Amino acid sequence: MAKDQTVLFHSTVFGPIHSRRLGTSLGINLLPDDGKVCTFDCVYCEAGYNAQGTGTTGLPDTSRVARDLEAKLREMKEKGETLDVITFSGNGEPTLHPHFGEVVDIVNSLRDRYFPEARTSVLTNSTRIFDPGVAEALDKVDNNILKLDSAIDPTMRLIDNPVQPSFTVESLVEGLRRFAGKGIIQTMFLRGEHSGRRIDNTTPEEVDALIRAYKEICPRGVMIYSLDRSTPEERLEKVERPELEEIATRIRAAGIEVML
């Protein structure tokens, strides 16, 4: 059962907000501020389903991003506020912006000018890593956080609903190897039901498949989490912290760093 849940971010720069994993974070939304654009249609996406449409405002141009970000960073600096990270997130997949690489350069430059101790991060669903320009831009951020919710195709499709039918776990894992030692893999663990089908990527089979994939990818680390906010699919269940700790122990036993 789906809820009428729509986009969260109605500006190009939002926050700062506190992230348990990243600290004090200022967000960058490179998607419309009144619609959603994404190559996935995840059942847990806090910005809602793609069916809400792409809106009318379009993607912000690079000059608007630069202007809005600099104004916010200057304001924070003048107030004596702190900043841990600038995060590309927003209403969909940030790497879909046609000038993503240029924007990364702008953000890094402004970060260096106002808060040089802060890090830059990108939350990406990994579908665009096969584009050389996108991959090169992701190499320039401090935290390149790449999604892998399941290493089993039917489960991945049920959770993430890729827009491109040819998208597979096998090709994704192969593509993620490019970021060995640098990329951070992010996995959402959850249970529930969607379209009359059971979802559960916490089973021994699922976790074993993920560990095999992690070992092949060789990431800098793995970030695991579960539901924390409202989701468009109502029949989803949060995996509580003790169980996440158990999963983390299994992953660490394979020699992989885990962030919770």
Can you describe this structure?
By secondary structure, the chain is α/β, with parallel strands linked by helices. It has a single domain, classed as Aldolase class I (TIM Barrel, Alpha-Beta Barrel). 31% of the residues lie in helices and 21% in strands. The protein is built from 7 helices and 11 strands. The chain has helices at 62-78, 100-114, 132-138, 153-160, 169-176, 204-217, 241-252; strands at 13-19, 23-29, 85-89, 119-124, 143-147, 184-188, 190-194, 197-200, 221-225, 236-238, 258-259. Strands 1-2-3-4-5-6-9-11 form an 8-stranded mixed sheet. A 3-stranded antiparallel sheet has the order 8-7-10, with helices on one face. Helix 1 links the parallel strand 2 and strand 3 (85-89). Helix 1 packs parallel to helix 2 (100-114) and helix 2 runs parallel beside helix 3. The chain is globular, with a radius of gyration of 18 Å.
CATH class: Alpha Beta
Number of alpha- plus pi-helical segments: 7
What is the string of SSEs from the N terminus onward?
A: EEHEHEHEHHEEEHEEHE
Return the domain count. 1
Average predicted local confidence, pLDDT: 95
Class based on secondary structure composition and strand pairing: alpha/beta
Task: State the low-pLDDT regions, or none.
Answer: none
What gyration radius follows from the Cα positions, in whole Å? Answer: 18 Å
- Strand segment tally: 11
* CATH-assigned fold name: TIM Barrel
Q: Which SSEs are present, and which pair or pack?
A:
Elements: E1 13-19, E2 23-29, H1 62-78, E3 85-89, H2 100-114, E4 119-124, H3 132-138, E5 143-147, H4 153-160, H5 169-176, E6 184-188, E7 190-194, E8 197-200, H6 204-217, E9 221-225, E10 236-238, H7 241-252, E11 258-259
Parallel strand pairs: 2-3, 3-4, 4-5, 5-6, 6-9, 9-11
Antiparallel strand pairs: 1-2, 7-8, 7-10
